[in-house]
Design a protein that fits this description.
single chain; alpha+beta; Beta Polymerase, domain 2; seven-stranded mixed beta sheet; two-stranded antiparallel ribbon; 8 helices
Length: 333
């Protein structure tokens, strides 16, 4: 048996993660496959949450769920981008969530596929989705959704709240990088900057389609969505539009920081190479002299003089000092 934060779940081999028959007062009755098979519309709104990678979940959706093939394919698709499709009084919506932690791989997004109509809520996923876990807690405590529109609003609200946390972290990290741009902690700066740029790329990929999908719902009146819920979707859609526009500014700021870091690293490398060149220029003639006088053949000057080595060492030192003075005069140092 699988469990999350003390909540017992359906067995790992089953595709049925959880199922509830909502009571219309914020609570509900948990159901299994048998209760789902015996359910009728008069019992209340049925919510079934499935792991679409499991065989029994795929079989139930294909064979027992009377819906258009488009809906079946979307609920079971391994890859899905944010979108929404209204079919009669039903809504198919694919929502994409991200991790609020910059240190995690932003590519590991979570995808939630939901079908909602007048009688049922069918949701599928592969990875665990935090809003669904929180929804189950709320239903157990009697504070969950009372009907389909409230379910949709709560799921979207919680997914967007995680995105907002990621946006705050991106803003904060970029502000800190700009404040410490002139510091020498380039390794840490490059690591943080790379995490920020990856997060921006992922958000760019999913924000606009998600905003467009919510905007599409506003154009299609659904009987189980009230005016307040429509207004909420409009507000979220507008907020996502602002976030997407803000990503352009964040991307530009990150690019400026990247260029500045690259410029400073190049400058440091050039400065070090310059110093190595100066040192090479100082020691090249000295090395030539020591190599010339170090050959083991007859006729070397001072070969039989006891003071020759001391005199030669002083000449080497004087030549080195003279070269350094010349370099300073030429402003090479």
């Amino acid at each position: 048996m699988e469990s999350i934060a003390g909540i017992p779940m359906i067995g790992e081999q089953s595709g049925l993660i959880l199922a509830y028959i909502l009571d219309g007062r914020g609570g509900g009755r948990e159901a299994g496959w048998q209760e789902i098979a015996a359910w009728q519309a008069s019992d209340g709104v049925l919510w079934v949450h499935l792991d679409y990678t499991k065989a029994d979940a795929r079989t139930w959706i294909r064979e027992q769920l009377t819906l258009p093939r488009l809906v079946h394919d979307a609920l079971l698709a391994p890859e899905a981008r944010p979108r929404s499709v209204v079919i009669n009084d039903g809504l198919l919506i694919v929502l994409q969530g991200v991790s609020p932690d910059l240190d995690e791989d932003p590519g590991n997004t979570i995808s939630l596929r939901v079908w909602i109509d007048n009688q049922r809520i069918i949701s599928t996923r592969m990875r665990r989705v935090l809003p669904i876990i929180l929804m189950r807690y709320a239903l157990r405590e009697g504070n969950g959704p009372q009907q389909q529109g409230e379910f949709l609003v709560l799921v979207i609200e919680r997914i967007i709240s995680v995105m907002e946390k990621l946006f705050v972290k991106i803003h904060t990290t970029i502000d800190e990088l700009e404040d410490h741009m002139m510091d020498d902690e380039h390794t840490l700066s490059r690591k943080n900057l790379a995490a920020v740029r990856r997060a921006i790329i992922v958000l760019r990929r999913y924000l606009l389609p998600q905003q467009e999908s919510l905007h599409h719902i506003q154009q299609q009146p659904l009987p189980w969505l009230n005016r307040e819920q429509f207004d909420f979707l409009a507000e979220v859609s507008e907020k996502l539009g602002h976030y997407y526009a803000d990503l352009e500014s964040l991307s530009d700021r990150a690019a400026v920081i990247q260029e500045e870091l690259a410029s400073r690293l190049t400058e440091q490398l050039n400065r070090r190479m310059y110093m190595l060149s100066i040192l090479s220029g100082v020691f090249l003639p000295l090395t030539f002299l020591t190599g010339l006088l170090g050959v083991n053949i007859g006729g070397i000057p001072g070969q039989n003089d006891a003071w020759a080595f001391l005199i030669f060492s002083l000449i080497i030192v004087l030549m080195g000092v003279l070269q350094i003075l010349v370099f300073r005069w030429l402003r090479w140092l």
